[in-house]
Design brief:
- The protein has 237 residues and is α/β, with parallel strands linked by helices.
- It has one domain (2-225): Spore Coat Polysaccharide Biosynthesis Protein SpsA, Chain A (Alpha-Beta Complex), CATH 3.90.550.
- The protein has seven helices and eleven strands.
- The protein has helices spanning 29-37, 80-91, 109-121, 144-156, 176-182, 195-210, 216-219; strands at residues 2-8, 23-24, 27-28, 43-48, 71-72, 96-101, 126-128, 130-131, 134-135, 139-143, 171-173.
- The strands form three sheets. The protein has a seven-stranded mixed β-sheet with strand order 5-4-1-6-10-7-11, sandwiched between helices.
- A hairpin with a 2-residue loop joins strand 2 (23-24) and strand 3 (27-28).
- The longest helix has 16 residues, at 195-210.
- The two termini are 22 Å apart.
């Protein structure tokens, strides 16, 4: 019913190394993301790419094998976030697809679940949260069969913006106030692009734990699919 796709195919140019694999409170950042959302999905997959920035190892796909999850390369290489969305929709087995960036350490499972329910209860093609800064398409949910051809057409037309196809779709957007109802943490959409941002986010997460706010990533780790075993060598496609 619901596929969750973790987008880790970016080039990490400003970070200088593959940020998805950097340790965040002692565990790879992507593992934290997965643990926060894995309980929602019937299928969980990761999109990564071999070629990354700053002369990093060309075979870094192998570095994701420890997740014990299906790994996919971008179907259309070098097309940015829009190409990543096309890949997510192309490889997902379920008709409803949640897409989450690998660099959002405070990603909200309740919000993602709410967006999923919107698509289950309406005919909308996509459901996106928003803030005063705009839409959040990499913390959103899409209907595979209707969005896939629109995203493909946008790529063929030479568009790059991940929302460049929205004018042709029925997109339901949560207002900032509605978004906050389901994701009250103001850091929900904080994405980490530099070492300084990474360090600051890690400090915030550490303070939240010390204050007793709890950490859904740690609490759900034991129930995550890859923590329960599975194939030692998931397919790389």
């Amino acid at each position: 019913m619901f596929t969750i796709v973790i987008q880790a195919g970016g080039k990490s140019k400003r970070m200088g190394e593959d940020k998805a694999l950097l340790p965040f409170l002692g565990h790879p950042l992507i593992e934290r993301i997965i643990n926060r959302v894995s309980s929602l999905g019937d299928e969980l997959i990761v999109i990564a790419n071999d070629l990354v920035a700053n002369d990093l190892a060309a075979n870094n796909m192998a570095d994701y094998q420890f997740l014990n999850l299906p790994l996919y390369r971008d179907v259309i290489p070098n097309r940015g976030a829009l190409g990543g969305l096309y890949t997510a929709l192309s490889v997902s087995a379920c008709p409803i697809v949640g897409v989450v960036a690998c660099d959002m350490p405070f990603v909200s499972a309740p919000l993602l679940g709410h967006l999923k329910n919107i698509l289950l209860e309406t005919d909308a093609d996509a459901a996106l949260p928003s803030t005063e800064g705009g839409l959040e398409p990499l913390h959103a949910v899409y209907r595979r069969d209707t969005c896939l051809p629109l995203v493909k057409e946008a790529i063929e037309d030479g568009l790059w913006k991940v929302i460049g196809w929205h004018a042709q779709a029925d997109v339901l957007t949560l207002s900032p106030a509605e978004t906050r109802q389901h994701a009250p943490n103001p850091r929900t959409f904080w994405n980490l692009n530099t070492p300084e941002e990474f360090q600051a986010a890690e400090e915030v997460a550490r303070e939240l734990e010390s204050a007793g706010s709890g950490d859904p990533a740690r609490a759900s780790k034991a129930n995550s699919p890859h923590a329960q075993g599975g194939s030692p060598d998931p397919p790389v496609k």
